[in-house]
Structure formats: structure tokens, C-alpha cells
Amino acid sequence: MYYCCAITDKGIRPHNEDALLIHRTVLTDGVTECELASPFLIAVADGVSGEHSGELASSTCLHMLKDVTFNSRIDMEQKLFSIHEALAELGAKQEDTRNMQTTLCAVGVDEADMIHSMNVGDSRLYRYRNEHLQQLSRDQSFVQVLYEEGAITADERQNHARRNIIFPVMGNLTEQPDFDVREHHERIEYGDILLLCSDGLSDYVTKPEMEEILAMPKPLVRRLQLLMELALQNNCSDNITIVALVRMWDKPKNKK
Fold first, then answer.
1. Are 118 and 156 a contacting pair, CB within 8 Å?
2. Into how many domains does the chain fold?
3. How far apart are the C-alpha atoms of 78 and 192, rounded to whole Å?
4. CA neighbours within 13 Å on the CB side: how many for 227?
5. Which of 48, 52, 207, 236 is spaced 20 to 30 Å from 97 by Cα?
6. Is residue 69 in a domain?
7. Which pLDDT tens digit goes with each residue over 58-99?
């Protein structure tokens, strides 16, 4: 069994272009928590700023993803391609939705409790283990290329003026996204926290700040709220979405 909690908030913006998925439920505002049995999918989507109908793109993408019956045998790259094609087709139908796009960062836990990840864009997947936060996803962005080439440092990547330039994402009308689908060949360990977030968190809260809050002896849902509040204190001008997943101790079977 697993415990999952999440928060999504418009921040200082007039509306929320983020959305989140926990198994079969899509949320575009507020806080939620639940217990999950494998297999399942969780995800964060961030409508691309500057494009038409970002909020429609993110929520529509996740409503399509929630209908996927996830397991270890499913071809997730093909499923993501089908969702991308459907978004692009929908976005091309009328001017006010034309070229609507969204990032997507998702985790699947299969029937054997093995971890799978899917990423398109710059929303992120982290793992918090032993008081250390590690990014498991790779940003599909211009500044990530600069960082990997050694042209900028990690700190410069965090505040670079062109950090919002990302590669093609879900719904792009002219180019197909690069679907980064991975089998991690491991399970979530007891004590781990898998953290999905939009760049409203990762652009405004540093890794040490995240680690400090995640280490607090507070309920996990409260720690997510504290992360969001810190992003706003750090002058976040974006929507903020965070999803956290932990493995629960297995409940003992009833004795006959």
C-alpha cells in the first residue's frame, strides 16, 4: 500500500494552468490525500505559458492519462504519443485552443511495485532518501543543455534568464516530443518520498530548502504546504503543484 498527498495552487496568477493526477482523479485546485494499491499512475502537468489554453491542455492531458490501465507490460511511449496526437488534434480545431501544450511528469507503480517514470518538458521527479534529495528526471530545456555542456553551473541554471525555454511538449503542432520513459528496476523503499512538481516549486525553492522542509517531523501533506508557502515567499510568479508518494508498511493479514 502507498500513501499519496498533493497540492495545486494558482499562486499569484489569475488562473491555474497546472493539474495533477492521482490514479483516476484529476485535480486542478486544492489539497488531496489518499491510500493507493498498485498498480497506479500519478502525474503533474503544467500548461505551457504563452500558448493558448494552457489550463485546458494540462487537465485534458491528465484526463486522457487517467484512462490508461497501467501495468508492467503496457507500451507507455505509445500511449503518450496517442495522447499527444489527440491534444494536437484538439488544439488545431479552433483558434482559441490552437497549439495548446503541456508538460507531463508521471510515475507508474506496476503490479510488482516496480517504479516507472515518464517525462516530457521541465516538470520534475525527485526522490528524497536519507535526508538527501535527488532529481530523477531530466529537464528537457535549453538551460539543461547548457548545464550538461558545462557552459553554466547548477546555480546559474536555477536563475538563468532563458530557463523557461523548453523543448517540444505534449500537444505541439509542429514537432513531436521526446518521450523519456524509463523502467527504474527498483521499488520505493520504506522512508523514501517520491516528489513530482511543476517549475513553480523547482524554480523558486532550492534543493537545500526542500531537504530542510522534507526532514521536518510534520505530516507529509503539511510539508507540501510549507514548500508551496516558501515558493510564494521567494516571489514565485507561477502556479505551484506538488505530488508526494510514500510506501506504507504492509498491513498484517488477519489470522484465521
1. no
2. 1
3. 30
4. 38
5. 236
6. yes
7. 999 999 999 999 999 999 999 999 999 999 999 898 887 888
